[in-house]
Specification:
Radius of gyration of chain B: 22 Å
Shape of chain C: flat
CATH topology of the largest domain in chain C: MetI-like fold
Radius of gyration of chain C: 24 Å
Chains: A mainly alpha (300), B alpha/beta (412), C mainly alpha (313)
CATH class of the largest domain in chain B: Alpha Beta
Largest interface: A-C, 119 and 117 residues
Helix content of chain B: 40-55%
Number of helices of chain C: 15
CATH topology of the largest domain in chain B: D-Maltodextrin-Binding Protein, domain 2
Largest sheet of chain C: none
Distance between the termini of chain B: 52 Å
CATH class of the largest domain in chain C: Mainly Alpha
CATH architecture of the largest domain in chain B: 3-Layer(aba) Sandwich
Number of domains of chain C: 2
Number of domains of chain B: 2
CATH superfamily of the largest domain in chain C: MetI-like
Shape of chain B: globular
Structural class of chain B: alpha/beta
CATH superfamily of the largest domain in chain B: Periplasmic binding protein-like II
Order of helices and strands of chain C: HHHHHHHHHHHHHHH
Oligomer: heterotrimer
Largest sheet of chain B: 5 strands, mixed
Strand order of the largest sheet of chain B: 2-1-3-13-6
Chain lengths: 300, 412, 313
Amino acid sequence: MSMSESTAARRPGQLFRNLNAKIASIPMILTALVIFVGGTLWTVLYSFTNSKLLPRLNFVGLDQYERLWSAPRWLTSIENLITYGVLSLIFSLTIGFLLAALLDQKIRFENAFRTIFLYPFALSFIVTGLVWQWILNPDFGVQHIVRSLGWESFVFNPLYDQDIVIYGILIAGLWQGTGLVMCLMLAGLRGIDEDIWKAARVDGIPMWKTYLFIVIPMMRPVFITTLVIIASGIVRLYDLVVAQTSGGPGHASEVPAKYVYDYMFAAQNLGQGFAASTMMLVTVGIIIVPWAYLEFGRRR
Amino acid sequence: MRYRLYRAVLATSAALFAIAPASATDLEVTHWWTSGGEAAAVAEFAKAFDATGNKWVDGAIAGGGNTARPVMISRITGGDPMAATQFNHGRQAEELVEAGLMRDLTDLATKEKWAEIVRPKSLLDGCTLDGKIYCAPINIHSWQWLWLSNKAFADAGVPVPKNWDEFVAAAPALEKAGKIPLAIGGQPWQNSGAFNVLIPAIAGKDVFLKVYQDKDATVAAGPEMAKVFKAADDARKMAAKSNIQDWNQATNLVITGQAGGQIMGDWAQGEFQVAGQVAGKDYTCLPGLGVNELISTDGDAFYFPKLEDEEKSKAQEVLASTMLNPQVQVAFNLKKGSVPVRGDVDLAAANDCMKKGLDILAKGNVIPAVNQLNTEDTNNQLNDLFVEFFKTPSLTPEEAQKRYVAIIEAAD
Amino acid sequence: MSNPATLAATVVGADAVAGSLSGPHGPRPRVTFSRRNIIIYGTLTVVALYYLLPLYVMVVTSLKGMPEIRVGNVFAPPLEITFEPWVKAWATACTGLNCDGLSRGFWNSVRITVPSVILSIAIASVNGYALANWRFKGADIFFTILIVGAFIPYQVMIYPIVIVLREIGLYGSLGGLVIVHSIFGMPILTLLFRNYFASLPEELFKAARVDGAGFWGIYFRIMMPMSLPIFVVAMILQVTGIWNDFLFGVVYTKPDTYPMTVQLNNIVNSVQGVKEYNVNMAATLITGLVPLVVYFVSGKLFVRGIAAGAVKG
C-alpha cells in the first residue's frame, strides 16, 4: 500500500509523472468537480434566490431559509429522518452483525440462509414499499389475520397511525437493507485470523467477550464501509416513503429528500427546494467531510 | 430536397384544411390521465388525431400531476421536448412560456376564431401572455361537487341529503350502518381541494375572491373563514376512517356504497360512468355542495413546446385544431366527465349532472379556479397545511386558521 | 465460503485473496443436536421466515383472482391458481393508451443497463486502481469529494445535470442516461475497487514495475485478472441499482425508451377503479426477476468480492 508513496517520493512534484494515472482519473475528477462540487455550489447559490419554475438569479437573502425553518412539514421531516436514521443504524448494524456471527458458526446450509437474508436487497425500494404496504394494510394484512384468529381488539396499524408510521417504514427498510450489512459483516468476520480465535480460546475468554472486545475492534474498516453505505442510504431515503405512505398520514412520515423534491418540482419553487437541499448538504458536510478526509485522505 | 419540399407542401395543406390526411408525423403527447375514465377520454383525442393521418404517440405518466410535471418540465428545459403536453389552466406553465420555450398559437387561434368559440372567455385568458396565445384549453372542470351514494343512504335508512348541512347531520346514521360518511384520499391535493370547495359554499363568492384573488389576510382571519374551518372540522371527523390514497379509490368507495359521499371535482363522474352508474338513480350530485350553486372553471390545456422539426411543428397545429374540433370536443368531454370549452356544441348526450353544470355555467355563476389565482407554491403550502389538518385531530381549527392566514399573507 | 479452494481454482490468481480469507470461525460443532445448535438454527430459521414472508405474499397474491383477494387475507394460499395477473402484467396492463404491459420496457431496460454497467465499472475500477497504486497529488481530495457525493440526494442533482447534459447535447439520449448512471455509481464502486486493489499483495505490483510494465499494462495484465470477485460485486450492485432505478429513467428518457421500472410505476399507479393487487404483485415480481436471478446465480462470488472490497481499509 505504501509503494505508490515511495514512487511519488522518488520523483516528486512532476506534472507528467503518473501521467497515465491522471488521464485515467479524468472522469473521476470531472465528476467530482463538475457534478458534485459544481452542482452543489450552483444549488447553494440559487438557494438565495426566489427562483420558481426556472432558475433565476434574483437574490432574496435568507428568505428561503427563514421560511424553511418555520415550515412544520420540514421540521417533521427532520425529526423523522433522525428517528429513522438512528434506529436504522442501530438495528441494521446489530441485526446484521448478529446474523453474520450466527452464520459464522460453521453451520450447515450457510449458503441458503445467506441467500435468503440477502435477496431483498435485489428488490427496489418501490417494490419493498409496495409489498410492505400490502402486508401492513389493516384490512388484509397482519392486523386482519390476528383478528380473524380470535383476538378481536388487536391493533397493529402502523401505516395509518401518525405516531408510529415511521416504524412501519423502518420495518420495510430493515428488511431490504440488513442482508447487505450481514454480508459485509460476514466478510469482515472471515477476514479475522484463525489464530486470534485460537488464542482467545486458549486464554479461556468467553465467546461474547471475544466478539465484543477483540473481533469488533479489528473489524473497523468493515464497519466504516458499512457505515458509508447505510448512512448514504438513510440521507437519501425517498422512494420507500413514496411507495409505502406517500408521506402520510398527514405528513407524519415526510422526509427531507421528499420535501426537496416536492418543492423543487411539484410546487415549482426551486429556491425553497434548493434551500432545503443546502441544509441537508450542510448537515452531511459537517458530519462527513472531516471524518472522510481523515479516514480516506491522511491515513496510509 | 424535392422530397422534403413535397412533404412540406403536404403538411402545409394539412394545416390549412385542419382535418385532412397528411404525411404521417409522429407526435409524442404527454399527460397524466391514467384512470379508467381519463384513459377512455384521451383515446378519443388519439383516435381523432390518427384520423388526420398523423400518429399520436402516447406518453402517459402515472401518479398524477405532481409526478408528471417535473418530468415534463425537465424535458422541456433540457432541450428534448415532447410535441404536446398537458398542464392545468393557470400558472403552472407561466415561466416556460416566458422563457420562450412554448410555441405561439396566435395565428391558428385567430384563423379558427378561438376568441369567439371558447367560453367562458377567462379560459383563453389563462392561455394568453402579452396578447399572444400559447395553449389550447380543452375542457372545463369544476371542483365544487358533492357526490353521494344513494345505496349508502338507503342502507343507513336516511334520505339522500340535499345539501352539506343535511349530509353532516346524516353522518352518525351512516357510521352506525358501518359506512364511512365522507371519503377523502390521503393525497394532499384532495384535502386542500375539499377545503377550497367549502369556502364558496359556506362563506360565499366574495370571501373566496377576497382571500384568493386579493390575498386579503384580514378576511382570511375573519369570522366567515372561521365558519369554513368549523365545517372542515366536521368534514375531517366524517373522513376519519377513510384509509385510501387515490382520489378514484375514494370515488370507488362511493360507487360501491361503502362511503356516503365525496367532495371531488366533476372528473369523478367519469368513474361513475365507467362503473355503469346512472346519475339520479345510483348516485346524486350536488354542485356547490347544494348550498351555493357556484362552480369554478378549472380545466386542462395543452401546450406545444417549440420544435426544430418543420413537419412536427405543422403537425402540432393539426393537433391543436383537432382538440378544439366540435365533434372531438363532445366525444372527449363526455368520456372525461367535463364540459366542452366550446359554447356551440350539442350536448344532448350529457347526463343529469353534466346538465346541472351546463346550466350553472350558462347562468354565469362561476368563480375562477384556485389554480388560476394561486401559484403552485402557495397551493403546495395549502396542501401541506390541510393534509396535516385532516389527519391530525389535535390540530385545532383555530390554530389551522392562523397558519392559513400566514400562507395567504405570504402569497403573491 | 465452505469451499474456497474450488473457487480459487476457477479464478486465476485469486488465491492471493483466498489466503487472507479463512473459513467460518466459531468453535467447531461438537454434538449435532446440542442446545447451542438448536438456538442457532432456531434463530436463523425464524429470521429466514421473516425475510421470506414478503416474497411469499407477493407470489401468492399474484396467483389469486381479485374476488379472492377481496375476501381473503394476504397470507392465505390461493384456492384457485390463476396466471392471468402475470399475463396481464406482462402483456396487457394499461398506462394511458398503451396496453402492452411490461413487455415493452424489458428490452429498454436491457439496453440501458448493459452499457451503463460496463461504463460505470470501467471508470470506477480504473479510479480505484489509480487511487490504490498510482496515487498522485490531490487524488485524495477528489476521492473525499466522491465519498461525500454519495450522500447527496439524487433529487438535488437533477437540475444541474439537466443543464450539463443539455450543454453537451446529450439530454434525452441513451448516452446521457448511461453517463448519469456512471456518475452516481462512482462513489461506492470506487471505494470498493480502491479497497480491493489496496488489499492485493504489493510485491506483484512492484515486480511488474521492475519488468517495465506501465499503468495500463499492469491494470490489464495483472490487476484485472486477479480481481474477478470484486468485478462481480460491482456488476451485481450496478445491475440491481440501474435495473431498479426509477428516478433517472423517468426524467432522462421518453415513453419509447422507458425502462421497466417506469412502466411498473405506471401500472401500479394507474388505478382503474380498484387497485388490482394481483397484477401489481405480478408486475413487481417480473420487474424484480432479473436482479433476483443475478443474485441467486452469483451469490457466492458476491460475498467473496464484498469480503475483499470491504475488509481492507
